[in-house]
């Protein structure tokens, strides 16, 4: 696949399924050349077929931190300047607080936080000389209020929101905007698995969501496209809750 002249390039991590795939779809529809990074080769193949010629997929494990600098160099060398980075890749783990091991906690933070920092750092290095770029981090309702049995996930996403602000303050003077999307409860395979096995939690989610329904991955894709584009040129350091009102529900 080749990038056309003057075409923007976006990287979407965890872009082969769920919210990440919806973001990649929206970018491709907007004629943004999109590099999807993921671990599951079968899902990557499906994404490549779905997204077409405006997309390339790369199989990479972002928890292998030492390999990230070469990955970003390779993308720039092969496809040209990176304009947009969406840090979407993440994992969840549902366990009682006292049952979470140090290894469990470390694994979630490595995937959801450390790898986000590392890939952002490398992308910032190539964005800075051009004095332009947009980085979008994906947070969660877990960063807005306490949710039981997801302590490591909550810690990682709360840190993502703090890191977004710190990045924005430091990088915005260099022309790089940094923002965050906090999805509410979105209809994906991951959320279905979590909610359908826990009727009490599902009822609670629905009862405190004023719009009375789950969101769709496309809702997040639309928000990501907005934040990545010129329409959001004066927006940086914010976390947008796309949640049907869940975070302010009673």
TrEMBL record:
Q: Spell out the molecular function terms from Gene Ontology.
A: oxidoreductase activity, acting on the CH-OH group of donors, NAD or NADP as acceptor
Source species, domain of life: Bacteria
Keyword annotations of the record:
Oxidoreductase
Q: Which InterPro entries match?
A: NAD(P)-bd_dom_sf, Sc_DH/Rdtase_CS, SDR_fam
- Similarity remark: Belongs to the short-chain dehydrogenases/reductases (SDR) family.
PANTHER family with a match to the protein in the record:
3-OXOACYL-[ACYL-CARRIER-PROTEIN] REDUCTASE, SHORT-CHAIN DEHYDROGENASES/REDUCTASES FAMILY MEMBER
Q: What is this protein called?
A: 3-oxoacyl-ACP reductase
């Amino acid at each position: 696949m080749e990038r056309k002249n003057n075409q923007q390039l976006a990287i979407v991590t965890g872009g082969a399924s769920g919210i990440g795939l919806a973001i990649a779809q929206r970018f491709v529809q907007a004629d943004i050349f999109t590099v999807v990074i993921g671990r599951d080769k079968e899902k990557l193949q499906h994404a490549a077929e779905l997204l077409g010629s405006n997309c390339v997929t790369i199989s990479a494990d972002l928890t292998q931190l030492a390999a990230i600098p070469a990955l970003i160099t390779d993308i720039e060398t092969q496809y040209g300047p990176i304009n947009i980075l969406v840090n979407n890749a993440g994992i969840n783990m549902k366990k009682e607080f006292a049952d979470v091991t140090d290894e469990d906690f470390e694994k979630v933070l490595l995937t959801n936080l450390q790898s986000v920092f590392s890939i952002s750092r490398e992308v910032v290095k190539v964005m800075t000389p051009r004095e332009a770029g947009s980085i979008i981090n994906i947070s969660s309702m877990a960063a807005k209020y306490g949710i039981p049995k997801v302590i490591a996930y909550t810690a990682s996403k709360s840190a993502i929101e703090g890191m977004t602000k710190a990045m924005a303050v430091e990088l915005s003077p260099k022309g790089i905007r940094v923002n965050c999307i906090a999805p509410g409860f979105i209809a994906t395979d991951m959320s279905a698995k979590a909610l359908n096995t826990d009727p009490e939690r599902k009822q609670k989610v629905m009862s405190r969501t004023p719009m009375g329904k789950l969101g769709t991955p496309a809702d997040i894709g639309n928000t990501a496209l907005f934040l990545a584009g010129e329409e959001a040129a004066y927006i940086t350091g914010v976390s947008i809750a796309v949640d049907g009102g869940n975070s302010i529900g009673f």
